């Protein structure tokens, strides 16, 4: 176990040296590639304007997302009405979706408790 720790430490030192040597050139290259997204000059007013634009754009997208949700709900209702025609694949997909929702709920609960594994999930 101690040899694994030493090996891990040496890998971490190598990675740290690599980042310190090549990190600034990577950063500059990344900014150069994406300079069309950078606002010049970077002022507080421009940042406030962009944050307001993002907020109100997201707010304006709510009706479209609500409409898509109701369409999806209607299709689920149709599947439920015709459940005798449902294939095994469709039932499996629905079960996996339900399991995924439950798992995300459990992860959210654990994250909400500060990543402690106490309570009724253990």
Automatic annotation (TrEMBL):
GO terms for biological process: proton motive force-driven ATP synthesis. It is found in: Mitochondrion membrane. The keyword Mitochondrion applies. GO terms for cellular component: mitochondrial membrane; proton-transporting ATP synthase complex. Pfam families: ATP-synt_G. Keywords: ATP synthesis, CF(0), Hydrogen ion transport, Ion transport, Membrane, Mitochondrion, Transport. The keyword Cell wall biogenesis/degradation does not apply. One of its GO terms (molecular function) is proton transmembrane transporter activity. Belongs to the ATPase g subunit family. This is Mitochondrial ATP synthase subunit G protein.
